[in-house]
Amino acid sequence: MLLVAVPGDLGNQLEAKLDKPSVVHYICYKKTENFFTLWLNLELLVPYAIDCWIDNMRQWWSGATRETTTSEELHTTGGKLRQMIEEMAEKAGGPVVLIAHSMGNMYTLYFLNQQKQAWKDKYIKAFISLGAPWAGVAKTLRVVTSGDNNRIPLISPLKIRSQQRTAVSTTWLLPYDHSWPKDQVFIKTPTTNYTVKDYEKLYSDIGFRDGWLMRKDTEPLVSDLTAPGVAVHCLYGNGIPTPEAFQYSDMFPDVEPDVVYGDGDGTVNLRSAVQCKRWTGQQKQPVALKELPGNEHVNMLTNITTVDYIKTVLFSP
């Protein structure tokens, strides 16, 4: 039995080789002879060097030049993933187990929704979902509004915000109204409350109108949470204070907010993580939920309970 892992944001690694016409600071490299680790390299996040990192990590997106949509890009990536799964299944002599973490679950769900049922029956034994943000996560609203340094003290949230706003995937993970109350306030300022129905106004008020176009690009991809059509094992952490709402002063949006916490794994809100339960009865394949009390979003990857559960799925008949 073989498995295919689809990592989330913090689980990814990105290498770069530079050849740039200009730089934002004299200490930044225009050209490098070899590839080097760009994400996640903490050595690049120190003062001054972070300006180079932000410029290298920025994604260029324009609503006026959207010749290739997000869905088309995912379709291209999905073709490569499909080919890899088929090759691995042929070598192993049987179907594979897909394991995804964090945002990787959204990509995996989109991929499975594009495949014919006969193909899934032949090549996919199960889909193990770890810490999935099925209904989005509240903390992404802080990311696009005032930035989030992921608790790395060297980084100023406002400094890194310019890079974080360029990531289209961030807007994909804003909370969805299919699971969150339409009157729940996520961002509160002295003059305005923002709910799941106020994203267009929020993006306008923070001076980031392209963000609304990015949201419209990504929202339809898996917003209906169509059942994947394969056996699902949904593992999620809880019991850890998780950002649920943000209160800003009159310096909004250029100030760090006071955070209101709820339940979850420290990143993914519990409300979002358990939405996979809706697939019970929507597909003939089984759907199992496994609660991981006290498991943090990233640390759950090395938790012995998680590892043992994966082994059980891998080696089951």
TrEMBL record:
Family statement: Belongs to the AB hydrolase superfamily. Lipase family.
Protein name stated in the entry: Group XV phospholipase A2
Coiled-coil parts of chain: none
Pfam families to which the protein is assigned, alphabetical: LCAT (PF02450)
Lineage of origin: Eukaryota, Metazoa, Chordata, Craniata, Vertebrata
Naturally occurring in which organism (per UniProt): Xenoophorus captivus
PANTHER family registered for this protein in UniProt: LECITHIN-CHOLESTEROL ACYLTRANSFERASE-RELATED
